[in-house]
Amino acid sequence: MDGIIKIALKWSGKEYEIELNEADNVLDLKKEIEKQTGVRPERQKLLNLKLKGKAPDDDCKLGQLKLKQNFKLMMMGSLEEDIEEANTAPADLPEVVNDLDIEEEEVAIENQEVYLAKIERRIKEYEIKMLNELRPDKKLLVLDIDYTLFDHRSTAQTGAELMRPYLHEFLTLAYEDYDIVIWSATGMKWIEEKMKLLGVSTNPNYKIAFYLDSLAMISVHTPKYGVMEVKPLGVIWGKFKQFSSKNTIMFDDIRRNFIMNPKNGLRIKPFREAHLNRDNDNELLRLSKYLKDLAEHCSDFASVNHRHWEKYKPKKRSERRAEQ
């Protein structure tokens, strides 16, 4: 009797549990996916389903793929109604903002003892798997994934089309001055799969120091917005003393994620509607210059208002000496 294979499918920000037999083939898998998601088999792109490095044919038996139980399968694909809507969408779509308008004076929580205690617990209990060694005298860049580095809910048909333009150029330039950390509000397995998909984990021109997942986050309560999960940079600072508010910057498309460190966060313009915007999005290219200016001219990143990064003008060396 053939064995049962359990697969965890990730699509459009949701996870689906699929159970099939080893004797079933890839087409059977696609039909089951259609039942659960509504995406037709011909629209499905099963990104990390491989046989000898290539996408398997529809008649390939699942048993031949030697999938581990609860295999994490990532899919791109669009519903017919979404494709129709995308093809008729106007070119001047307004920017979609997925954020809470959080001001420092509204939510002064970064120094509250209850949250500092939570950070201390994360410092003690959360285990970081180092991917590459930290380098002396480097700054720290912490990056979100979804809508920051790629659009995970697009009608794009390939991984390259999901990727934000200039991603590898941006990371290559940033790596000259910064150790780079990826922090996503998802599970570690999904982070690893996304970094493989984007070619980040294997790019020879830069190295990622480590990943942080949702387990490194903490929950905070605000009177206006209730309970929120956030990314406190203090977790990193507590584990690696060479980093602090003076030499750390975090990019995220959602401002509330850096509510514990409002002076070290930069809300990046979300990369959405990749099929419409990939040809004119140059946010990472422009931010590369900003990171270079900070690294070379700023001794305290927390002293800069990162909301106005586009207008940032580095102080001259004589001006910096006068302040010291």
From TrEMBL:
Protein keywords: Coiled coil, Hydrolase, Magnesium, Metal-binding, Nucleus, Protein phosphatase
InterPro entries named among the record's database cross-references: FCP1_dom, HAD-like_sf, HAD-SF_hydro_IIID, HAD_sf, Ubiquitin-like_dom, Ubiquitin-like_domsf, UBLCP1
SUPFAM superfamilies given in the database record: HAD-like, Ubiquitin-like
Domain FCP1 homology: 134-294
Gene Ontology MF annotations: metal ion binding; protein serine/threonine phosphatase activity
Enzyme Commission (EC) number: 3.1.3.16
Catalytic activity: O-phospho-L-seryl-[protein] + H2O = L-seryl-[protein] + phosphate; O-phospho-L-threonyl-[protein] + H2O = L-threonyl-[protein] + phosphate
BP term (GO), one: regulation of proteasome assembly
Cellular component aspect of the GO annotation: nucleus
Record-annotated Ubiquitin-like domain positions: 5-76
Coiled-coil annotated spans: 102-129
Protein name in the entry: Ubiquitin-like domain-containing CTD phosphatase 1
Organism of origin: Exocentrus adspersus
